[in-house]
Amino acid sequence: MDQPEEAGAAGGGYGDLFHSTADDRVRAEAAVLYQKYPCQNCGEFQHAGMKGSFTPLVAACLALTSAFAKADDQPASSPTTHGPEQLGDFILPSVVVDGLKLDAALAKLKAAYEDVCRKTGETPLALTFAIAPGNQEELHLSLHPEGVEDSVGLLASVAGLKVERKGLEYHFTALEGDDTRVKQSLSVPPDFGSYIDQLAISPAGKPLPIGALLTEIGLISDPEAKISLSNSGELNMSNIRKADAAAIADFTRVICTMRPKQLKFTVKVVELEKDAQVEVRKTNPMTGRQSLAFQQEISGKKGVNLSTLPTVTARIGQSATIEIVRDFPDHPQAKEGKIAGRKGFGESVGAVGDGGTGGRSSGSNDWEEALNPNQVGQVAEVEGSLVGLKLDVKLHYTDRVGEIDPATQEAVITNRTDITDTDLYKDGSTQLLTQIRPDGSKTLLLAKAELIDATGRPYREND
Fold first, then answer.
1. What pTM did the predictor assign?
2. Could you state, in order of their start, the residue ranges of all structural domains in the chain?
């Protein structure tokens, strides 16, 4: 959201306060207040404090003063690199909460958030938590890698509370409900049972009844409650405390808002002959526009060959292999040559394409087994995980070529290109990787990793 360019003098002191500080964290919290108290004339956020029509409310001013006080506790030289509106997309690692009360669990979650910020070059927001008194239940669950907002929401619902973020502070209040026994039915996602099982600290070797799973993670505190899950996705609850039923309903609401996540990898290969007149850009990573402009600039030039490998998608933390290969040698009297293999990154996923193209599931951790020793061609193995607002990507690309030794009639297969990269990618950006050969020729890889949902749409707004 755009911030106002300048504040009008007649706008009270509120707009001026917004612009008088260089601390971006204060700007982020003030922006939330601007959304809550927009221009009284047109209701547009970007006009607030600019036309002299914005009347600051006492509550807003007090809240902004609180924001300044929070900022004073932080180093002035640490500008915010993400705003509170991005906390839903800021992915945390799995966090185990075993025997911790809610305040301690939130402290551990916040520490995980700050650790990810350090690893990815982000400046953490000064998050705080206001918890309603009296909540002393111990929590026992293992949070999946999810955004900050969803992780906090799951902890709240398991603790029997609801949560709302106001600026940089999460407010926890009691859910409606008491010890009254009720009978209710609730529609749940198809994978509700397996999701609960994965949240458990010690997943059972065989499926447990849904009631036992809900009790294990702390959503149910009453052993007399009777719960069953129908094949049609109905959670039937009887003789259950109204407070527990409310907690389960809020927990279901939170997980229903979570979009499934997967990674899409696109790899373009640029082969440059030694005399190709191409200036390799130093901008790295490149935005989508920069990558497209670079491709248009070099396309059609002498000594340049640009090709695109098949796009492949993979689950988070799993690897995928892209192949464009053929058997070698073609000569009927040739003998199979040998080539040393190398380790890959794990089990591959993807669909085998016709004609030797497309992704392939090798089911092996050995790179040599993933590509038959007598095959030549291009192979890219990719894997990614989520870290904050970035993607932790591993990529290994080879281009194997072969020839027949005239003396022995054996196949001689060599890696013409071998590029490995392990780096943090900005979601949706393109990484430029280069290998220069002794003869002066080059291979450039334009590697793009993007987080997408189940429909194939980008999970975040990217350039």
1. 0.68
2. 14-80, 85-174, 181-256, 262-452
